[in-house]
Amino acid sequence: MLAFIVRRVIAAFGILLAGTFIAYVLVALSGDPLQRLREDNSPGREERIASMTERLDLDTPVPLRYVKWLGGASQCVLPFLGKCDLGQSVRGQDVSSLLGNAMTSTLQLITVATITAAIIGVMVGIITALRQYSRLDYTATLASFLFVSLPLFWFAVLLKQYIAIDLNDWLADPAVSLPTAAIVGVVSGLVWASIIGGDRRRVWTSFAGAFVVSAGGLLVLAETGWFRSPGLGPIVVAVVGLVAAVGLTALLAGFRYRNVLYAALATAVAGIVANLALDSVLFNPSWGVLFLLLLLAVGIAVGIGYAIGGMQRRQAITTSVWVTIVMGTTIVADRMLTAWDNYFEFVDGRVIATFGSETPNYDGGTWGNLLDTVTHLALPTVALILVSVATYSRYTRASMLEVMNQDYVRTARSKGLTDRTVVVRHALRNGLIPITTLMAFDLAGLIGGAVITETVFGWQGMGFMFVDALRNVDPNPAMAFFLVTGIVAVLFNMLADIAYAYLDPRIRLG
Predict the structure, then answer these.
(1) How far is CA 79 from CA 75, 76, 97, in A?
(2) For residue 135, which of 190, 183, 185, 212 has the smallest C-alpha distance?
(3) The pLDDT value given to residue 510
(4) d(Cα 423, Cα 255) in Å, to the nearest integer?
(5) From CA 279, how far away is CA 295, in angstroms rounded?
(6) Distances (CA, A) of 359 to 314, 343, 377
(7) 264: Cα within 13 Å, side-chain hemisphere
(8) Which pLDDT does position 48 carry in this prediction?
(9) Gap between the Cα atoms of 437 and 184, Å rounded
(10) Mean pLDDT (whole number) for 257-273
């Protein structure tokens, strides 16, 4: 394994070296940074030209300039070599500082988009593979091809118009009419009937149940004023925790051995009690306190799984940890919504942001600032997610269909193993190998996609920095973008290769 990693690191270094050299030459020859100064007839033009020439080292041949840039960039990749130096922009700004701020914004965007898209896409792919040629499969296939075909810049503009602007207008007077509730109920009924499937009676029962719950729930929420001042409360947190305990147990372990279920339920109860007991601590905690609470919660979940799990200790620990994650996310969402009224008033009712990554001059504490970040992340994240979900779902479906026809899967079924065990423990791990490769490419691809998304939504990230550098013929910020994109691509491809050995023990990397 060590020899494999060393070989990949050496190969990655060569790829980065060649890639950055080609990119540097193309950027250097793409335009003249001094063009605007040469066209300026105001006094002091020659001095400004000389200053910029010296600052950007424009009087040095391009190959030698690349070598000097590479010396500073290598110190960013390997900090022990010295201070990171990516040069200066045409405005005299330090590119290292610009890149640091831009990376923080972009990582927020692509991390949420990648994780969400992977989870949803893999789940849809598994379900459609198990329900091949069903109504759900045809619907998911149609939606996948539709989302993949949509131009990202056009789809982003549609989101701004029909989600942000129209939704913000609706939130000013959130009334729900009977026809609207009926339409939502019909759509929800069709979705759930397709997911649950079965004979005609089961389909109609699923449709009716989903219709009543969705349409009725929407009318009740509107009538009680929930949309004006949304929140979850301890009851919803408790229900989500208990449902997650039962659902995750069914998915990850099954109900044959009750120790896993008892551990999951005990973890959920511990989370419910902690949410009530720590009310004052969670009022406005720092991020450090939240991180410590997360570590403590995971530790308690591991302890409960270990103590109650018995012979199924490993499954109990895994299930308990996932219950903790679901409950923790629900509690954070509940606390975040407590800042809704204050934030709604500050932004004058325009809650869903259409531009930028934060609201200027707003400080609503931990939960208010988190709500501000979420509302700014919503539209660009959705734009990136839908395309990625379509890709993940199609690859997962194809991979699962291939794996489910393998001999070892038929052997597992013939031995009497349950469908859950066959799918989750035998088929899924091998089916995820192509998805691992896709995810590695998708991370670098999302940064490229973020160029368009960040430009449309004014998100001050790496994509916005790259486009601004191209517009102003500014080579150093453009090269900073290429450097990060190249490192992400080679690093995650190497991690994907290492993950193969974990997913499939037949693969040896030595």
Answers:
(1) 5, 5, 15
(2) 190
(3) 58
(4) 16
(5) 18
(6) 45, 10, 12
(7) 31
(8) 81
(9) 37
(10) 93
Distance CA 84, CA 96 (A): 7
Phi, psi of 201 (to 5 degrees): -65, -40
In angstroms, the Cα distances linking 2 to 220, 458, 498, 501 are: 60, 43, 11, 13
Q: How many helices (H) and strands (E) would you count in the chain?
A: 22, 0
Query: Hunting for tokens 């070892």 — which residue is that?
Result: 408
pLDDT of residue 109: 81
Tokens of 89: 């922009």
Q: Dihedral through CA 369, CA 374, CA 376, CA 378, nearest 10? A: -170
**Stretch 390-395: mean pLDDT, rounded?**
86
437 DSSP assignment: H
Mean of all residue pLDDT scores within the chain: 85
What distance in Å separates the CA atoms of residue 245 and residue 25, rounded to the nearest whole number? Answer: 56
SS3 category, 358: coil
What mean pLDDT comes out for the span 8-22?
Answer: 85
**408 dihedral zone (left: phi>0; alpha: psi -120 to 50; beta):** alpha
Distance of CA 441 to the CA centre of its chain: 14
Mean pLDDT calculated for residue range 391-416: 86
Tell me if 20 sits within 8 A of 482, measured CB to CB.
yes
Q: Tokens 């259409």, residue?
A: 354
Cα–Cα distance measured from residue 165 to residue 157, given in angstroms and rounded to the nearest whole number:
11
pLDDT tens-digit profile of 59-75? 888 888 888 888 888 88
What amino acid occupies position 470?
L
Spatial distance between the Cα atoms of 290 and 281, rounded to a whole number of angstroms:
9
User: Which 3 state secondary structure label does DSSP give 489?
Assistant: helix
Q: What is the C-alpha to C-alpha distance for residues 180 and 113, in angstroms, rounded to an integer?
A: 29
Give the range among 8-12, 220-224, 496-500 with minimum mean pLDDT. 496-500
The encoded tokens of residue 244 equal 């997650």
Q: Is the pLDDT of residue 300 over 70?
A: yes
Q: How far is CA 142 from the centre of its chain?
A: 23
List all residues 6 or more positions away from 479 whose beta carbon is below 8 Å from its beta carbon: 20, 23, 24, 27, 69, 73, 86, 87
CB 334, CB 371: distance < 8 Å: no
Asked if 384 and 113 count as a contact pair (C-beta separation under 8 A), the reply is yes
Residue 508: its pLDDT value, please? Answer: 65
Note the residue count of the chain: 510
Between residues 57 and 396, the one the model is more confident about: 396
Q: Produce one character per residue of 233-253: b if its CB has 16 or more CB atoms within 10 Å, e if not.
A: eeeebbebbbebbeebbeebb
- pLDDT top residue among 215 and 51: 215
- Angstrom CA distances, 112 to 12, 17, 197, 377, 380, stand at 27, 30, 31, 9, 10
The predicted structure's pLDDT at residue 506: 67
